[in-house]
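Entry 14. Ran structure prediction on the chain below.
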Amino acid sequence: MNNEIGMRVLTSLVALGIFIVAGLAAFYQNILALPLAIIGLIFVPFILMQHNEKNAHLAENLEKLAFVITFLIICIAFICLYKPI
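Output, structure tokens:
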């Protein structure tokens, strides 16, 4: 149980690091990195709240949703990249 808590804290620190790095990239380079910073900030509390069954189930559903959205974005990117001119 203690190992799971440590892993959850480390995972939330990774999400917090994503927020910080994407925020710095959006500030110094391009505003297009801002959605990544927002997503990282949203996932930090979700990762920390996985101590009970309801929140863990919500996180699994969000993970599946994120996978589907990522898959669709990759498919759309390939369609736009390889469309006939």
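The first helix runs from residue 2 to 28. Will compare against last week's run tomorrow.
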